Amino acid sequence: MAAGLVVAGGQSTRFGEGDKAVAELAGVPMIRRVADELESAVDELVVNCRREQTDSLRTALSGYERPVRFAEDDEPDRGPMAGIRTGLHAVDETYAFVVACDMPFVNRELVEYLFDRASGHDAAVPQLDDQWFQTTHAVYRAEPMAAACDAALDRGEHKIIEPLFDLDYVVVGEDEVREHGGLDSFENVNTREEFEAAAARF
Fold first, then answer.
1. Which terminus of the chain faces fewer neighbouring Cβ atoms within 10 Å, N or C?
2. Which tens digit of pLDDT belongs to each residue from 72-92?
3. Looking at the whole model, is its pTM more than 0.90?
4. Using N-to-C axis directions, what is the helix angle for 30-38 and 108-118, rounded to 10°?
5. How far is Cα 31 from Cα 25, in angstroms, rounded to an integer?
6. Residue 119 backbone dihedrals phi, psi, to 5 degrees
């Protein structure tokens, strides 16, 4: 019933040379760290990526304990909403936890809690006290969210918040997040400096 969708198709422009999704973070490709944390919480893993990434991502995920599929972007570089849409169309399960490939501190307990909160709704989306919706760290019912992304893109909308307004979603507040995993789960790695700091923590 549960899938993990890792969005890895960005260009990593702030990271510099190389694809940060497969960069060795303390000896383990960053996407593998994300996938390993999800393993016990999901029944399948879908990776959204650019076509030229697939081989290296497949290598990074070799031996993974859940079925892995790659949802390649037909039109790369259209932003995270397009990547989420492409990935969700490839999901077989009812619900999917969507996470960016550069969130290596994703917390399994929080993921499981988000699946629980999404049950009976189209989405469960964390909203921290800074008021930002954490749309790339949320659970969605795959079919309605994919359709909402299609509709938003057809309207010329590219902000990832837009599809939410077509869905029955629940908000998961910061107090709930702190109780069920913590704020570290939302940390992402954009630059080499952040990457080195993350590696030191591992």
1. N
2. 988 766 788 999 999 999 999
3. yes
4. 50
5. 9
6. -55, 125
